[in-house]
Amino acid sequence: MHESPTPAVTVIVPTYNSSGALRMSLETVLRQDFADFEVWVIGDGCTDDSASVVRSFGDDRVHWTNLPVNSGAPAAPRNEGLRRARGKYVAYLGHDDLWFPWHLSGLMESIEKDGGDFAYSLGALIGPEGVVGVFSLPESPWNKRSAISPSNWMHRTSLAEHIGLWSTTIRIGDDRDFLRRAYAANTRFCFFRQLSVLKYPSLLWRTYSLTSAFPQSGRLEAIRRTPEALRLELLQEVAEGMAKWGYRLGPQSSPCRKPLRWLVSLCMDAYGRHRWPLNRLLYWSWSRASGLSEKKRNPE
């Protein structure tokens, strides 16, 4: 398929040494029922075969570039993608997340119909036990009780010119900081009321250390064959989880049971999880738990 000279949407996919998962994520982009897009896969100093994976699709809408130095976070690759973007709109996809075929078309329809600047959809958090949570967009960007993921975002490319690029100093929460600035700029938001994203949190899967047995495989096959049936199945899981555990899926611990942990979390929120040196400590903890540190020590 030939690339449009001026595509409507630029899809930005930051990645680091996760070519197996990246292949599956990109497949769901190319299965979209809306085809007027370009894709920029931005390697964060990748040393694996990610470049070959991108080329293997043989689609001239899909581009690859690799940053010379690993930054350790998706902000720098996203900024590089924004600098290269030719689309009127930008959509983001995590290299281990999946889109349903109606993701881009639904966001495009919402943002065009409502005259918005920023569209978002509904996403499901997938853990080893199934759906462990849902996310859309929090009322407060720093509300840690609400999950957040740019994989369900689309915004006008010009928004980044107005509010600035992604912060490369905030190691954990750069997405919340970007959202905070969008809120402050009186951005017009619109909601595509549809489940369109499956997110596989690296903390639950140690995604950065995986080289086989990818958890996305089963649901990717369902997206290929019967995406609507998968959507209904996942929504049923969400409903069952809400009936059992409440609005937030999964059993929630009471502050009375773990008062010290609750107090520490309260102090962290009061200080600001995005501030130094707390943000660096949180990043270090996440890096170890997700397998990123291990992948840096043993590059593929």
Structure summarized in a few sentences:
The protein is α/β, with parallel strands linked by helices and 300 residues long. Helix content is 41%, strand content 19%. Helix 1 (19-30) packs parallel to helix 2 and helix 8 packs across helix 9 (227-245).
Topology:
Elements: E1 9-15, H1 19-30, E2 37-43, H2 50-56, E3 62-66, H3 75-84, E4 89-92, E5 98-99, H4 103-114, E6 118-127, E7 130-135, E8 153-156, H5 157-163, H6 174-184, E9 189-199, H7 202-205, H8 217-225, H9 227-245, H10 259-271, H11 278-290, H12 292-297
Parallel strand pairs: 1-2, 1-4, 2-3, 6-9
Antiparallel strand pairs: 4-8, 5-9, 6-7, 6-8
Helix pairs in contact: 1-2, 8-9
Task: List the main descriptive attributes of the protein structure presented here.
single chain; 9-stranded mixed beta sheet; 300 residues; 41% helix; alpha/beta; 9 strands; globular
